[in-house]
Amino acid sequence: MSYTRFNSSSEVNIMNRSIDVYLSISSPFSYLAWTRLPALAQRSGCEYRYHLIDLARVWEQSDNPGPVSVESKLNYLITDAGRWAERYGVPLNLPGEFVFDNTPSCRVFEVVRESGGEIPYIDSLMTSYWVGGQNFAKPDVLASCAAKAGVGEEKVTQALNDDATLEASRQEAEQAVSQGIFGVPSFVVDGDLYWGNDRLDFLERRLAC
């Protein structure tokens, strides 16, 4: 997939509006929403600010057990994700082993964001996991995805071992919770929250106002 960053210089009706997008690689619905965001960004012409957040930490701080601890909920989530993938016409291959540890990808994201490579990094991670079935928490996978964002392996290694990136990722999760976020994907526009891949139509309608 090819992604383009849009900003307030676009000739659209809405000027200077920005959208904060909160995602986690372990979430299939984050992946599904991600496949729709390029076209939405182009139509809206707004600035999109992307955040990778540690979903387990968000669940903990928002007192949300999430689907992992509820087997029937997790089974339904998997089935429903397949339905949405079919509707969107995008590949979705359930990994042989689900990965729930988002912390490493969030730590590397802090370094990638400094270089402005958020979009290719997220795109590569999403594709690697939800299409290729690769464990996105492994250093070699993270290094490969970061390389597509112009970040070298040495910086990836530093990010995975630096207390500063760990603290930054924790603060990112705390900031998300402070905005009322309890799950992903979530979108914040002018202080209003839209949660879920199935709320993209509502989000676009809001951006058209």
Radius of gyration: 16 Å
Individual helix count? 9
How much beta, percentage-wise?
A: 5-15%
Strand order within the widest beta sheet: 2-1-3-4
- Distance N terminus to C terminus? 28 Å
- The count of DSSP E runs of length 2 or more, i.e. the number of strands, is 4
Named at the architecture level, the CATH assignment is 3-Layer(aba) Sandwich
**Parts with pLDDT < 50 across at least 5 consecutive residues:** 1-15
- SS class: alpha+beta
| CATH 4th-level superfamily | Glutaredoxin
General shape: globular
The CATH topology is what? Answer: Glutaredoxin
Q: Explain this structure to me?
A:
The protein contains 9 helices and 4 strands. The chain has 209 residues and is α+β, with helices and mostly antiparallel strands. The protein has one domain (18-207): Glutaredoxin, CATH 3.40.30.10. It has a 4-stranded mixed sheet, with helices on both faces. Strand 3 (186-189) and strand 4 form a beta hairpin. Helix 4 (103-114) packs across helix 7 and helix 4 packs across helix 8. The longest helix is centred in the middle third of the chain and has 18 residues, at 71-88. The two termini are 28 Å apart. The model is unreliable at 1-15 (pLDDT under 50).
Primary descriptors:
Glutaredoxin, 4-stranded mixed sheet, 9 helices, 4 strands, 10% strand
A few lines on this structure:
This protein has a single domain (18-207), classed as Glutaredoxin (3-Layer(aba) Sandwich), CATH 3.40.30. It has helices at 28-44, 55-61, 71-88, 103-114, 118-130, 139-147, 153-161, 163-178, 200-207, and strands spanning 18-23, 47-52, 186-189, 192-195.
